[in-house]
Amino acid sequence: MKTIHFSTKTCYLWLLLGLHTIIASLASPSGTHHSHEFVIQTTPVKRLCRTQRILTVNGQFPGPTVQVRNGDSVAIKVTNAGPYNISIHWHGLRMLRNPWADGPSYVTQCPIQPGGSYTYRFTIQNQEGTLWWHAHTGFLRATVYGAFIIYPRLGSPYPFSMPRKEYPILLGEWFNRDPMIILRQTQLTGAAPSVSVAYTINGQPGDLYRCSRQGTVRIPVQTGETILLRVVNSALHQELFFSIANHRMTVVGTDAAYTKPLSTRILMIGPGQTINVLVTADQTPGRYYMAARAYQTAMNAAFDNTTTTAILEYIPRNRNVQPSTPILPLLPAFNDTPTATAFTSGIRGLSQNVVFKNSADVNLFFTVGLGLIFCRNPNSPNCQGPNGSRFAASINNNSFVLPRTTSLMQAYYQGIPGIFTTDLPPVPPLQFNYTGNVPRSLWTPIKGTKLLKLKYGSSVQLVFQDTSIVTTEDHPMHIHGFHFFVVGAGFGNFNPSTDPARFNLVDPPVKNTIGTPPGGWVAIRFVADNPGIWFLHCHIDSHLNWGLATALLVENGVGPSQSVIPPPPDLPQC
Ligand code: C2O
């Protein structure tokens, strides 16, 4: 057992077997101040029979787990000792009135340049559960990510019996090339990025890949005990199914909000989402695989069809008996949308969470999906998308382009003109049969940096409508600075006159990332009580890169308690 150097005055992590982290609950009271140092650096890592140099935080992959309590304050000094511009996003943390700490490059800050540093300072306000942090620059989050765990205030109870042992389970995608080179390639060719060569659990592909057996993550359990798994989908582009052989799981939370207990054999988890599950070691002592593989909804698209595993291992193990090969769980077929939908729609929030029940002040209807830009010369090396095109993606036909000379937030705060406009249409500029056979003339979006302005305190209903342009697909839609209630979902086109009557306003789950059913819609509600500029995008990074994004500009309300705080002096400049 060794303490790792990331540890600070108040946080302690233990690395057991060097493979997975057992996390002891924090001993500190809430209100504690945590300070951490994150050094972004290039680190050689051996995976799949090869040593690759990847970007890490403090040489760790996955990066350090941050553990805090509700009410704590945090300062994380990020130093960029790597070769790329980078910034870190604290995914799901609300950052009330403090967009400066949110982190997406060119949205709330300029990236930290090589050699530079920036200290993210923020307070945890009324959030509990599992979140995570990741790089928010290009495809760098492929290797730069870690868990962010928020415990309740000391003495404040969990709505379930909290196990003594818990493990983060970070699902990832492994690429055999520098992810930034893959990104550049797609930007050059207009084609889809090359797919991953492995999935990983806590950075390890597991037994089913070449040269990986030694590193396979093992989670020890004693017969009869219950453990908490904090499952995070940190994959760059892929929704995943997750299951544990012979064991049921009980979902108790998603995206840092508690849920009603839901017993299940299968999780479907989209990039950006987190799911907390209880697992009881109630089977014959032995070794059982936990496994994840793709849930793939885009049609005719290449994807990584491999399976990552870790081992749930009953201890003590009989040392005289050779360990048997663990049993593999049965995972759904890659295109099993009914199973994915049954799982997602089965999640219910705690009814004490309050969603507004009257009609919203603002009704937004966003079409989300892919598009194609057809080239004049279809044989151009820059047009290697379908039929001599370049891939694009959009919200209400606007394909989002990030600024390059400053961030949106800096431009807004300093009144720099010409960086963005606030004319994103709140409804599609043209109505069409979104999930039908869409005429080719509607396949090409317009590029722009269009934001949507919201008045402070307005109640917002937002329907994300997937389109069948290029392909229908599950788009995990994420909003920074907010969590929201998922009040409804369905297949086909949203019907504003019949569907709202069936909304769940009693116990909707609270999320920060929710997928559109492929060829369907999902409706969310939230109150715009966080002033600032907040990125809203598909958490599949290839889609984000193609423009499936916008940002919400929430205006200041009345007085300082409803206004954005001033930027810190060390905020990076472009
Ligand atoms: Cu987890 Cu904008 O991202």
Q: Please, could you describe this protein's structure?
A:
- The protein is mainly beta and 574 residues long.
- It has 3 domains: 2-160, Immunoglobulin-like, CATH 2.60.40.420; 172-343, Cupredoxins -  blue copper proteins (Immunoglobulin-like, Sandwich), CATH 2.60.40.420; 362-562, Cupredoxins -  blue copper proteins (Immunoglobulin-like, Sandwich).
- Helix content is 6%, strand content 38%.
- It contains 4 helices and 35 strands.
- It has helices at 179-189, 337-346, 408-414, 541-546; strands at residues 2-3, 14-16, 20-22, 33-47, 50-57, 66-69, 73-80, 88-91, 117-123, 129-135, 145-151, 165-174, 198-201, 218-222, 226-233, 239-244, 249-254, 257-264, 266-269, 274-280, 287-295, 307-315, 362-374, 389-395, 398-400, 446-448, 452-454, 459-466, 476-479, 484-491, 510-511, 513-515, 520-527, 532-538, 549-554.
- The protein has a 6-stranded mixed sheet, with no helix packed on it. A 6-stranded mixed sheet has the order 24-23-28-33-30-31. Strands 14-22-21-16-19 form a 5-stranded mixed sheet.
- A hairpin with a 2-residue loop joins strand 17 and strand 18.
- The radius of gyration is 23 Å and the shape is globular.
- CU-O-CU linkage binds at residues 89, 91, 104, 134, 136, 272, 478, 480, 535, 537, 539.
